[in-house]
């Protein structure tokens, strides 16, 4: 099975005039820098416009609402992450052993989900995690399980490895149970090793 | 580790006068029978009142809103399910081997989540799956993993077994990927066996 390189990146925009694309990019960079500096709650359409040096109307024309801008930021960030998985440096990208890539993938997915936590919430319905993102991660994990020679129902095993990395589960573990992040990561690594072991390994 | 029998059942109501409790029970039974016969969308407060032979005002006084009634139904059903797990007949209840109980638990949890699917949606925020339900299931799976002699971080392994049974994951598998239900159940059984195998089993 060859690596699914031809999958279109999530959020690839339809062709835009170059200055419009630049404009959009500038607004997303402005919004992200505001969030990094002041937190999601301070990212207002006015503040983004001021930081990017454009009128507020331009920001609304481009993203319709604050929720729309949040969703665009999420998409932008998911696209960058997908690109890193598919063609970035190892061990997340190609070039490392499949087990090393799988463990790097899990840690990176977990961190990215936690980093986007507030953004997902702020984007409301517009930002609900899309099946496109899920499909990308499922296809990638399935590919790596195949490379590892795992036998069994690989799509379902991929799902089993991805499910504990979903936000509600992570929130339960980190915020409610108060498990340290390292413990959650170690637990996931242990799960991967249990899933990958060959079942007919002689006792 | 002894079985966590002393855990209070979810949704145990505060003490009510006996006739009020009977009244409440009658309304829940009426609502459930309407849903079973006509679907969640036809369960109106008027229809529930008519079926139970009381005024609409009584239904509203009791549950405040349609969402409130849906949430009460969910709680009622979760309580019955928890009672079946803790003291019902084997293999879901006590008396069967731990592996048999664990597999019966997974299938039953999956079926209950799917059965309540529409109810969860209709209950809106009032019905968002509570951490109390999650804690009960996590404690039970952790107990069974202990009985099976599994070594490792049992709370995290319990989470890993429960996460693929959450509704968004099941919906992705059944409604989007169109996997048959049996395949999803088989996948979960395979996951359990992989997780339970002793890691230091000599190769």
UniProtKB/TrEMBL annotation, chains A, B:
Write down the DNA-binding region ranges.
Answer: 44-63
Top-rank taxon of the source lineage equals: Bacteria
Question: Does the record bear DNA-binding in its keywords?
Answer: yes
Presence of keyword Nucleotide-binding: no
Q: Which UniProt key words apply to this protein?
A: DNA-binding
Domain HTH tetR-type, first and last residues per copy = 21-81
The record's section on PROSITE patterns has: HTH_TETR_2 (PS50977)
Q: Which InterPro entries match?
A: Homeodomain-like_sf, HTH-type_TetR-like_transc_reg, HTH_TetR
- What this protein is called in its record is Helix-turn-helix domain-containing protein
UniProt lineage: Bacteria, Bacillati, Actinomycetota, Actinomycetes, Propionibacteriales
